[in-house]
Structures are given as C-alpha cells and as structure tokens.
Amino acid sequence: MNSLKVFSALLVTFSVYIIESNAYQRVVLYEHADQRGESVTIDVSTTEYECVNVPSYMNDRASSVGPSNLCVVLCEHNDCKGRCKAACPIQYYSDGPGIQISMM
Fold this sequence. Notes:
By secondary structure, the chain is mainly beta. The chain is built from no helices and ten strands. The strands form three sheets. The chain has a four-stranded antiparallel beta sheet with strand order 5-2-7-8, with no helix packed on it. Strands 4-3-6-9 form a four-stranded antiparallel beta sheet, with no helix packed on it. A two-stranded parallel ribbon has the order 1-10.
C-alpha cells in the first residue's frame, strides 16, 4: 500500500474517553519529521467533526503532527477531500520524510 505523500486537510474527531473542560484542543503540524522545524498550531473543536484547512505557508510542507489525544484524519486535498489517512489517537504521528500536508 502506498503511503499518501500530500495532505491538504485535517479532519478532527474526538475520542470518546476524553473529557475536555473546553470545546477546543490544539493540533500542531510540523515542517519536518519528529516534530521539528516550523510549526503551526490549530485549535479544533472537540464537540463535533470539523474539517480544518491550515494556512497556506504550510501548504505541502508539514511532515508530522502531534501531540494530541484527538483522532485526526489527514486528507490529500482542501476541505477533507481526496485520499485520507487516520492517526487515532495521536500522541505523535509522522509518516516519515516527504509526507506533506497541503492545507488552505
């Protein structure tokens, strides 16, 4: 099975065992594997499914995501379209060098 090489949207779901005191959680996307390089922090809803497009400066650049106790689905195109790949729940997720998340 080929791994996805370009992601463009982040679909965020919440884990049923997580109880949050507020309705938002942070997901951090990193430019390089192992949570290194430039990053962007995205606040996502934990009360509903939400598709989030990241800022254009991270388009085709993100290689890892975390930490979070949320389930995230990384998609190939904006608005959570195209091929998608799940990381549930993520404490840290990296699909290695070359994985890029294109969003917004």
